[in-house]
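#data-curation
PF: Archiving a pair of folding outputs for the training set. Convention for this channel: one message per protein, sequence first, structure tokens after, nothing in between. First:
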Amino acid sequence: MKRLSALILLAGLAGCSVTSGQYAAIDACLEGGQSWNYRSASCERAAEGPVDLVRVDKSEHLMSTYRAGRLVREFRVALGRGGPRPKVQQGDGRVPEGVYWITAHNPASAFHLSLRIGYPTAEQIAAAARRGVSAGGDIMIHGLPNGRGGIGARHTSVDWTDGCIAVTNREIEWLYKAVKVGTPVEIRA
């Protein structure tokens, strides 16, 4: 955990020197209880209520939430340090691809709240077993490591997770309320 926290801190500081004004604007918006629109680079009123679908586009580092087919809110995300390919085994640091469901909310996470994704599927477990490895698990959508929330939006300057999908602490607070157990999560490259 110490190595991860140090990596995040360094990545955040490196990102700050490049676009610190943009990160500051995003963080100020989120701290004010608003929603940052990453496409228009503007601060907007945060939507309320539940969502019924979460989509993650790994190639765009973008997570989108929907209600009844309509876009509700988008998030810039940090992904697994293992690169863009799909997760194939425990410890590869990659984010899985496929359709999953949110299986649990964890208020006592090592990160500022987390939503458990139902990875691996039976097919992924079988495929890993044929290769003689474990498929892994504990894939989450989560906030920043506890005690490191001040990094804010700068955390997206590098992929740093062990295979999870990370957002800012204010964003995970919104997601924690809006995304219920059983909500589908589509993860694509």
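PF: Second:
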Amino acid sequence: MDNKLIKKIRHELKSQVDLDYKKGCENFFIEKIVCYGVRTPLVRKISQKYFREEVKFLDKKDLFSLCEDLFKSDYNEEATIAIQFLSLSFNKFEKKDFKVFTQFLNKYINNWAKDDDFCTHVLGVMLGRHPELISELKKWTKSKNMWVRRASAVSFISSDRMSVGKEVGYVARDNLKDVFEIARTLMKDKEDLVQKGYGWMLKVAANFHQKQVFDFVMENKKEMTRTALRYAIEKMPRKLKIEAMKID
């Protein structure tokens, strides 16, 4: 892959650094992160600019190579750009490319911001188009990598902007049985961010299936952490929230 494009992207990122924002970002994450300190709206503008000017003309092999080079740097902003390049290129992808996305997830996704962005804009779109891949996500619930386990749930929280009529959460909407199966598997996960991930998945599913999700929560609330439970019922009516939070 020609490094000229990456050099231009990095030069532009460095020109937009906000040191106060950088300090705030570094303090916001529990885990140590690597970042320039560029605000996300600016990062997305940079990625859109280079996508229009150069990236959209790349073949798939060169696109994957470019994105991997960006992921390898470990900078949050470069990961955001790589993810947006992939998201904007979905007309190039086939079911078999899920293997490449899985490799990116395992090798380069190492905090919740990267995880959520990658899941909702790349993995979730692939699931929407190829729901038979959900069986692969069920295997991820047993991964030693907590970000892969979180991805098994958060990938259900997706919107496919390239498909008319698709709203946020359509994967969770259409695959409720799988949502519940993954939630049960992750229910006793020791990582707080994994618990929040499956709780978030349930919350999105409840936008379409409130009764079923409420019944699931009531059936399993003794096993669920309070964190996951609160996430799951966050948008439910107050009466249902009170009922779900009662300690038997």
